[in-house]
Hints:
mainly beta
Amino acid sequence: xxxxxxxxxxxxxxxxxxxxxxxxxxxxxxxxxxxxxxxxxxxxxxxxxxxxxxxxxxxxxxxxxxxxxxxxxxxxxxxxxxxxxxxxxxxxxxxxxxxxxxxxxxxxxxxxxxxxxxxxxxxxxxxxxxxxxxxxxxxxxxxxxxxxxxxxxxxxxxxxxxxxxxxxxxxxxxxxxxxxxxxxxxxxxxxxxxxxxxxxxxxxxxxxxxxxxxxxxxxxxxxxxxxxxxxxxxxxxxxxxxxxxxxxxxxxxxxxxxxxxxxxxxxxxxxxxxxxxxxxxxxxxxxxxxxxxxxxxxxxxxxxxxxxxxxxxxxxxxxxxxxxxxxxxxxxxxxxxxxxxxxxxxxxxxxxxxxxxxxxxxxxxxxxxxxxxxxxxxxxxxxxxxx
Length: 387
């Protein structure tokens, strides 16, 4: 079927891609094992870990173990899937846990094998006045042996909402996606970091070729922040670099409808809160009432109604060969794994997998074989493999 979006003022858009909710027999094969259908055959989901506190990010180490962020307790956890051992990393910094604050994301340096650096983002500050910071750490076993502060966002907010900070590396540059901290106007005011994607060197320095690094102050206006790479973002939840092209992709929550998947480009304005494919929570149009506007970058894909997208990966691996280059995105409200089939940078099909079976999916990772690991809000980690 076609996905059709309806908007105020009688405006309608149709994305030329089929949306399929895969249905069919679902088999529970004992405790913690479920088989469900997909367009490419049966998939088995195995529950490997329970008892975590809302895992927000998962990252595999070269030895096959994984590091998992537990948002609500602000900790980093080492998981050995071979033995089943789960242990917290000692020496982690304290994070401020409230509403959407807490421990956010984790990413290995591209040269991790030689330098051992692990990058973490988390909330810091006080209740009613918090923001996001980025540190890099080194581990020895299950203990932090070095930590450096790289960045503290000038995006402080009274409500601790829309603070999630995702990290990605592209060609050794560090990118950080920040929400608008529930102050929409800040996403169009580049004197703040709120509602932006930032670009830094791996040691926290500002690259001289960032779009606002050499900006000159205009009369009556504050200088834009030199770290900003793009702006006009609402609430980024996924950030991922295409391993083939090096392109940077992001997804974000819309308000009432209008979740977006964006190709992130230098200096672009992505429109929030002037334009949106969604509506106000209480009804009514967002900003101009139109989903697009000249001079503002539109999304590659929009979800109406919302699925509340979360973490994302671009599939590379041999386990699911027909998924090569596809986007896999967790769905919180939609409670499924969202698969976008991509051709030449455009979505040609959408598949909704395991609907209602694995809970609110918040974090995703791939192991070296291309098996898919999903973390949900119930504190579980599931592994997907072909049946």
